[in-house]
Design a protein that fits this description.
heterodimer; A: 133 residues; mainly alpha; 5 helices; elongated; B: 89 residues; 0% strand
Chain lengths: 133, 89
């Protein structure tokens, strides 16, 4: 490998590391911040998996550049994570539907048998107050 | 540049672990807590890989692979328990 190529490779590795950290942080922020379980499931099942995939890609490029031969373990971990994350999300959503968790009023396509939480809405409160004489 | 990016990434993953612990503590129902634990497994895999990059050693990937498989199996087992009331029928 030519010598001028190493700073380029370092920049690519740094980009993948920071992007992976940002993706995982956004996913965990969604897990903490969103309203009900059906919204919360989106964050970790998609975004965090992508973040870990970015970090494993950075690790693959780094060890290819430093040791000189391709290592297959990172590829194995990322393939395993990308296969198992949808299975886990599907089983968690089935468990949540089985337990009949209360959905937020802004969650769309709620099944009939699920209970929807009533929101403390300012518009409804004002209209009910204005109906009083 | 690589050192700074590595520390930024480690800090972001540690912050996301703290957020997951917060959801694990306040989670109103059981599937929320299972989801928080599963996300903690995935974030700790990334932290172990970053630790391996920082120490320049390749012997941490077996630990990462082991944590990935154990996390998947335990999450599936707990979900199965919630769904059916039994793990092996």
């Amino acid at each position: 490998m030519p010598t001028w190529f190493y700073p380029v490779l370092e920049g690519v590795i740094a980009f993948f590391l920071v992007a992976g950290g940002l993706f995982a942080f956004i996913g965990s922020l969604g897990l903490t911040h969103l309203k009900d379980f059906y919204m919360r499931l989106h964050g970790p099942s998609k975004t965090t998996t992508l973040g870990v995939g970015c970090v494993l890609m950075a690790s693959m490029i780094y060890f290819r550049a430093t040791t000189g031969h391709f290592s297959f373990q990172e590829m194995l971990v990322s393939i395993f994570l990308f296969i198992t994350a949808p299975v886990t999300a599907h089983l968690l959503s089935k468990a949540a539907l089985h337990q009949k968790l209360v959905a937020d009023s802004r969650t769309r396509n709620v099944p009939e048998r699920l209970e929807v939480a009533e929101e403390p809405d300012e518009v409804n409160a004002e209209s009910s107050e204005s109906r009083l004489p | 540049m690589l050192d700074i990016a590595l520390w930024i990434s480690i800090a972001l993953f540690a912050a996301s672990l703290v957020l997951n612990v917060f959801r694990l503590a306040i989670g109103p129902d059981l599937p929320d807590r299972i989801l928080a634990v599963d996300t903690m497994y995935v974030n700790s895999i990334a932290l172990i890989v970053l630790f391996g990059i920082q120490l320049n050693s390749k012997s941490y990937f077996e630990a990462a692979l082991l944590i990935a498989m154990l996390g998947f199996v335990s999450t599936v087992a707990v979900c199965k328990y919630l769904l059916r009331g039994d793990i092996i029928e």
